């Protein structure tokens, strides 16, 4: 896995060559009355981590999927839109740039592609250097996650104070990859025929939804993701013998309550994986212990064990986790799912 190295490279960029762009973007967020953070697919999941940091620092921001923002939202004049996209070429992002200009909104772009429309047409572009993934966003997700979090932190409490502890957290997580892989190889939590639910709180909700997407894109298997609190208000009715749950435990809040949820899920016959810091080893069927992260920043590294889990499960299922069967690498039109159908629909228009 290249993620720890790519995340370190991102931090180096944000504290070096990208520092000026980061400062300009943070100033725009601080001065704006209306801030919307958007993306689609994995990029939207990365946005969730940034929004969590903003909210916990007392700074209001809205999060909306790019297509919904494009087609079903009126953007107030003077708004700041933070658009996140690894390629900067997705059809919704490209069209959103024109809508933002017409609405009198300012766009901050966060992307891995320096020659993309998002990079060239944003008022401020944070172009994160990263080796692009072959298909499914894994390394690029981690880099965008760090960059979006750094922007949120820069606009509120400050990013430089976080950097030393964040660097150490990423380094220590890299050292644990082989151990997590060994855990997953030996664990019975991964099962190809089981239904999977992912539950989390705060910034880890970003990871929770990214896990669902990894199951869908990589393992080609359905999964469900939601906040732990939402699950407790009705969806728990679906729990039955053999179900699989992945849960993220926050660094400091709601720990006892969520450990109780894990306990009760197992009482009801489900198998549970827990990811977090300083967890009791007997609290779940599989416990992935995380190194210490800066307060509120656990979401940057807590995706790593579940990325490994998705890769392992794809091998058990006999599918290629690094290629798309139906989806394009860059979605460049809004018609249908299959290219032939899309062409027919476009001709019908």
- Find the count of extended strands (DSSP E, 2+ residues): 10
The class by helix and strand makeup works out as: alpha/beta
- The CATH class of the largest domain, by name, is Alpha Beta
Order of helices and strands: HHEHEHEHEHEHHEHEHEHEEHH
CATH topology-level fold name of the largest domain: Rossmann fold
Mean pLDDT: 93
Q: Summarize the main sheet.
A: 5 strands, parallel
What best-fitting shape do the alpha-carbon axes yield?
Answer: globular
Supply the number of helical segments: 13
Number of self-contained structural domains: 2
Which CATH architecture of the largest domain is right?
A: 3-Layer(aba) Sandwich
